[in-house]
């Protein structure tokens, strides 16, 4: 009986609570990696890639990937790619050697910076790391935009998108 009640309370909560992602801006798929503006290691050891999706010179979209391993190597990028066919390879050029980061193909997190102020406004998590296909969920809003005024920001995004796509 208690379990039934708990379930009912949970169901009521889920029904009454506004869905977190209802008015959040829709998550877009990661642009082609070749169009990235920057990439680097985050403090947590993940590899982030920044994109300027509207090409106004300011980064507005990030992806974060799990790094499987990283190492120095004198091998060329093609050779290293051959060693890790199921991963993405990022490399820094040093004089005679390269430093390679072997990252998972698909991101674990996606982050939007709607107002391009450097503070992420919406972070989405894709636990399956299978690309943007609808099973991603709102994760956090470090800037507070996604929790305080997700309704108005959703409208801003809608109108911004309208202006962007004639
Ligand atoms: Ca931009
Ligand atoms: Ca922001
Ligand atoms: Ca997914």
Please write out the topology:
Elements lengths: L1 H15 L21 E4 L5 E5 L9 E5 L1 E7 L3 H7 L3 E7 L4 E7 L4 E4 L9 E4 L11 E4 L4 H4 L1 H15 L2
Antiparallel strand pairs: 1-2, 2-3, 3-7, 4-6, 5-6, 7-8, 8-9
The structure holds calcium ion (3 copies).
Highlighted features:
166 residues, alpha+beta, 3-stranded antiparallel β-sheet, disordered C terminus, binds calcium ion
3D structure, described in words:
- The chain is an alpha+beta fold.
- The protein has one domain (2-66, 108-164).
- Helix content is 25%, strand content 28%.
- The chain contains 4 helices and 9 strands, in the order αββββαβββββαα.
- The protein has helices spanning 2-16, 77-83, 145-148, 150-164, and strands spanning 38-41, 47-51, 61-65, 67-73, 87-93, 98-104, 109-112, 122-125, 137-140.
- Strands 1-2-3-7-8-9 form a 6-stranded antiparallel beta sheet. It has a 3-stranded antiparallel beta sheet with strand order 4-6-5, covered by helices on one side.
- Strand 1 (38-41) and strand 2 (47-51) form a beta hairpin.
- The longest helix is centred in the N-terminal third of the chain and has 15 residues, at 2-16.
- The protein is globular, with a radius of gyration of 20 Å.
- 20% of the residues are buried.
- One calcium ion binds next to loops.
Short description:
The protein has 166 residues and is an alpha+beta fold. Helix content is 25%, strand content 28%.
Total E-strand runs: 9
Poorly predicted ranges: 13-22, 149-166
Strand order of the largest sheet: 1-2-3-7-8-9
Bound molecules: calcium ion
Report on the biggest sheet: 6 strands, antiparallel
């Amino acid at each position: 009986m208690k379990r039934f009640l708990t379930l009912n309370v949970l169901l009521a909560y889920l029904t009454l609570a506004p869905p977190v992602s209802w008015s959040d801006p829709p998550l877009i798929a990661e642009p082609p990696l070749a169009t990235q503006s920057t990439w680097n290691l985050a403090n947590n050891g993940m590899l982030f890639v920044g994109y300027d999706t509207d090409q106004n010179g300011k980064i507005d979209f990030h992806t974060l990937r799990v790094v499987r391993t990283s190492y120095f190597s004198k091998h060329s990028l093609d050779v290293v790619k051959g060693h890790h066919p199921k991963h993405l390879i990022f490399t820094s050029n040093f004089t005679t050697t390269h430093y390679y980061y072997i990252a998972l193909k698909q991101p674990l997190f996606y982050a939007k910076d709607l107002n391009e102020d450097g503070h992420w406004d919406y972070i989405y998590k894709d636990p399956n790391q299978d690309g943007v296909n609808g099973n991603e969920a709102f994760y956090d809003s470090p800037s507070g935009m996604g929790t305080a005024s997700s309704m108005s920001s959703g409208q801003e995004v809608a109108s911004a998108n309208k202006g962007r796509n004639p």
